[in-house]
Design brief:
6 helices, Diphtheria Toxin Repressor, domain 2, 121 residues, mainly alpha, 7% strand, Arc Repressor Mutant, subunit A, single chain
């Protein structure tokens, strides 16, 4: 299923937060991303409808298998691209910002070539 860049960003954020804490709520996502609670609430609804997350009766968010796979894919791209830019001499903040822009658009074949090239060093 094709999902929008913003949805991928939410999935990535839920993944990152779930790696740091035992439970994640919408408010955690809003604070981490600097977004309003209504914006996050709408996104959570769409991700739930799309089968990417579940929300329990206490409001805790969990990634489904498909949601986690998507989140991990975006997160890996972000990490690899950030590290690539840093290795080229870009400062960490700029590297991370540029990686965030590219991670959603780069083709699988180009990303795999970059990953292969930089892991061989």
């Amino acid at each position: 299923m094709l999902i929008q860049e913003s949805s991928e960003m939410y999935l990535e954020t839920i993944y990152i937060l779930s790696e740091k804490k035992s439970s994640v709520r919408s408010i955690d996502v809003a604070e981490y991303m600097g977004f309003s609670k209504p914006s996050v609430s709408r996104a959570v609804g769409l991700l739930k409808e799309g089968g990417f997350i579940t929300v329990d009766k206490n409001g805790f968010l969990s990634l489904t298998e498909e949601g986690k796979a998507r989140a991990m894919k975006v997160y890996e791209r972000h990490e690899v691209l950030t590290n690539m830019f840093i290795s080229l001499g870009v400062d960490e903040e700029t590297a991370s910002e540029d990686a965030c822009r590219i991670e959603h658009r780069i083709s699988d074949s180009s990303f795999e070539a970059i990953k292969k090239h930089f892991s061989a060093k």
